[in-house]
Amino acid sequence: MLSTKAFSAGRQLARAASSARVGAVRSKHTVPDLDYDYDELEPVISAKIMRLHHDKHHAAYVANLNATEEKLRNAEAAHDLAAQVALQPALRFNAGGHVNHTIFWKNLIGEKNGGGQLHACALKTAIEQKYGSLETLSAQVNAKTAAIMGSGWGWLTFNPATASLDVITTANQDMAAAVGHVPLLGVDAWEHAYYLDYNNVKADYFKNIWRVVNWKDVAQRYDAAVAKHRAA
User: Under which EC number(s) is this enzyme classified (predicted)?
Assistant: First the structure.
């Protein structure tokens, strides 16, 4: 049985997922449109993977999240605490899947449109101060992400506890926010993110994905995280 702390965490995840949607409180979550064509990330990520990943996998998380939230609302209306607790794992998993992928799509852009290019900015300075270089940072993210047993995510985050950048991993669809970190850049380590292109050589996927990182988006997330931390 889930603890009170775990139950509370599940509700926080639902609220985080809700921030990705617009409209009435009871409106349904939707899969966000991509800012680019399916084939823009080639040859790093094929159009075939993008269609499956975005239109099928992400859509499944959204559909299951909407269904779980509906069940949760019914359980709350019936004051059925046992049912509410039982729904928390599905809520956590599908809310995380929706939020993580929503960040992931924004974190990517084709090479011809600036993918992989980190220009002078506060984030670049922070990376060089802590890791020495972008190459050293990417190597650390890749090593930690490759070490995930099973499925999960590798993250570059802003850690409010230290007011600095951090590299962490999360299992399955757990969110960086669930452990107090602000997600800046996520690397999807689930097989569906790379297997059709790289088969079992996931190290090549981790190496190549840096060519299509949208550093403008990551830098904006960093600036927002730092500003919020300073204002707190």
Answer: 1.15.1.1
